[in-house]
Amino acid sequence: MRKLKNSELDRKSLEEFKASEKTPIVIVLDNVRSLNNIGSVFRTSDALLIEAVYLCGITATPPHRELHKTALGAEDSVHWEYFKNTEDALVQLKENGFEIYSVEQAENSVSLENFETDASKKYALVFGNEVKGVQQKVVDASDGCIEIPQFGTKHSFNISVSCGIVLWDLFSKMNYRK
């Protein structure tokens, strides 16, 4: 077995990426403070052709040197918008036909493995602050909550890990389990 070189991976150019059909998912970052987490979300979003990343509240925006360290240029390929208030982002998403799911531990949440996607729907996934999670008023404005099952002693995953887990699960359900 031989490790492939980057030149052998047949990745899209920036222009090809921008012209590509996107996965109908928007990521909403609700007051995420870590620039490394934000950059990682951009990089994962690029890998899975995610439609957009909405940066809300205290969430930093490109261009930023620390964000770029983990995004590695994905902040240039993935469409992003900034909203002072997360609720304003949700209003826009609902007006554009998105179903909104906060990724949060909440009453009546749906465990990720039981969440069913529908090819005719567009999804917005809200990920919250590293300490406080998704704001309650944002949870209230969501169509539901998705929870990632956990079996150890910790109460949560890092936000960039949570985003990767949920995006891959939804992406695979939307693209491979038709």
From TrEMBL:
Q: Give the GO terms filed under biological process for this record.
A: methylation
**Which GO molecular function, any one, fits this protein according to its record?**
methyltransferase activity
* Pfam families, sorted: SpoU_methylase (PF00588)
The UniProt record lists the tRNA/rRNA methyltransferase SpoU type domain at 25-168
* Keyword set, alphabetical order: Methyltransferase, Transferase
User: What is this protein's name?
Assistant: TrmH family RNA methyltransferase
Against SUPFAM superfamilies, the record matches this protein to: alpha/beta knot (SSF75217)
